[in-house]
Amino acid sequence: MGFNVGSSLLDPSLTVSVFALHSKLMDVRGFWHLGLGNVPTDTKMSQIEVSAMKSPLTPLATLIGRELRGEKVEKPYLKYGQAGLAKKGEDYFLIKTDCQRIHSDPSTSFSVFAIFDGHNGISAAIFTKENLLANVLSAIPQGTSRDEWLQALPRALVAGFVKTDIEFQQKGETSGTTVTFVVIDDWTVTVASVGDSRCILDTQGGVVSLLTVDHRLEENEEERERVTASGGEVGRLNIFGGNEVGPLRCWPGGLCLSRSIGDTDVGEYIVPIPHVKQVKLSNAGGRLIIASDGIWDALSSDMAAKSCRGLPAELAAKLVVKEALRSRGLKDDTTCVVVDIIPSGHTVLPPPPIKKPNMLASLIFGKKNQNSMNKTNKLSAIGVVEELFEEGSAMLDERLGKDSPLNANSGIFRCAVCQVDQPQVEGLSVNSAPFFSPASKPWEGPFLCAKCQNKKDAMEGKRLTRPTVVL
Questions:
Q1: CA angle, 304 as apex, 349 and 257 as ends, to 5°?
Q2: 228 dihedral zone (left: phi>0; alpha: psi -120 to 50; beta)
Q3: Among residues 191, 189, 273, 198, which one has the least CA distance to residue 230?
Q4: H or E segment and range at residue 250
């Protein structure tokens, strides 16, 4: 079983608990019993360290109160763990905690965690792992502020997924991969996904939220309708005698997913356009569990979250895998990444409070929850989670917006997907109208080059030919 352990400070100025730092040097109780004057010179601590030892950890209620009052608080830090067991060897993961929005500026750091569950080979999973992040970042304008960067990220994720798919299909290989791609910037978590890997959020209130959507034809009626409208056929596997078995699949190819990267031999109606969700956690923090379907075929989201609460992230990932194997056995590649987003001043993620039944409290808070349904921000009872963005449409023009071209006066346009500058004779806008709009008509962008426009048409069933597969 593969097992990696790590942690990342998102702000180098943050310090962890002095108790943890000095636990190997001396017994804390003995230290206070001796008094500062009795501490040997080589083990004396600075006044700052002593003050930190005397200061108790900030209570959870205080952190939440600060968030609600809009007070500035320190960045969280991350601890993470990964575990997995291979059946076919087609699962891959990415952990990158040293990303920076601005090169050589640690204050702009962010982290990426991802799982790629390959099928029909490993090429698509490896290619996506190596290229997706760069393709996403290339779609975000340079020199933007943090807020602008976060606002641009959902669209950039769509462009990056589609660009990666186009580039891989040009290799002429037939493998495919699911993708669950998580970007963590301070308290903001953005998740983009295609396929049936999954990411869940376990908040400090004990509320488990699903941050992805499963793109399985068996369970997603909207995706079935989209595939058939685009020219695909959906049905079960026919065996001798006319009996149908197994989950719903799209034909040709027999893939049970409606979205993925790769799968050149199946059809362009299997799209790489991800579902994207962006949330902001409160200063109470939270735990993310990112895993391939080898986990979710065995465990529900609640079961996975409850199975590892109170454990460090590295042990939690191992336990989730163990629980899935105990429940179902090793029938598929089984990979799990656990990420704890921990408030400053805590060494581990505080466990959720134990809830005691209280009829009066439930009546009071029930009314509050009912009244809060009309608000834009959705808040859990204890850990406040603000939903910033969510979109899952498979229509590329709906996901890329209607920005103006790079420089309309010069006749040079930048493709919204591949980020390549093109002269005006090379492409069309997304509505297939000429990129020159009449003076009375506003720009109906974004601009797509000829290659990306062909990709868009194929995904929507306007071009039914498939790329030639190199044997």
A1: 125
A2: alpha
A3: 273
A4: strand 244-251
Helix (H, G, I), strand (E, B) or coil at 235: strand
**Residue 420, SS3?**
coil
Least confident piece of the model among 114-123, 365-374, 400-409: 365-374
CA distance 320 to 336: 7
List phi, psi (to 5°) of 166.
Answer: -60, -45
Return the SS3 of 332.
Answer: coil
CA–CA dist 271, 162 (Å, integer): 8
**Rounded alpha-carbon distances, angstroms, from residue 122 to 116, 160, 179, 271:** 10, 20, 13, 19
| Each residue's pLDDT tens digit, 229-276 | 988 999 998 876 677 888 999 988 899 999 999 998 898 999 999 999
Contact 117, 183 (CB under 8 A): no
Taking a C-beta distance cutoff of 8 angstroms, is the pair 213, 232 a contact?
no
Q: Which of 63-77, 138-152, 170-184, 295-309 has the lowest mean pLDDT?
A: 63-77
**Could you count the other beta carbons within 10 Å of the beta carbon of residue 134?**
11
End-to-end CA distance of the chain: 35
Whether the model clears a pTM of 0.90, i.e. scores above it, the answer is no
Instruction: Please give the distance of CA 25 from its chain centroid, rounded to a whole number.
Output: 39
**For residue range 2-23, what is the model confidence (pLDDT) as tens digits?**
445 454 444 433 333 333 333 4
Which whole number is the average pLDDT over 376-405? 74
Q: Rounded to an integer, what distance in angstroms lies between the CA atom of residue 42 and that of residue 65?
A: 41
> From start to end of 101-216, where are the E strands?
109-119, 176-185, 188-194, 198-203, 208-210
The one-letter amino acid code at 42 reads D
- Residue at 107: amino acid letter: S
- Residue 88: beta bridge partners? none
Mention every residue, 6+ apart, whose C-beta is less than 8 A from residue 259.
194, 195, 215, 223, 270, 271, 272, 273, 274, 394
C-alpha 443: how far from chain center? 32
Residue 190 near residue 183 (C-beta atoms within 8 A) = yes
Alpha helices, H only, 344-438: 359-372, 396-400
Q: How far, CA to CA in Å, does 444 sit from each of 106, 212, 403, 436? A: 38, 30, 8, 9
Domains of the chain: 11-69 (no CATH), 77-215+257-391 (3.60.40.10), 397-459 (no CATH)
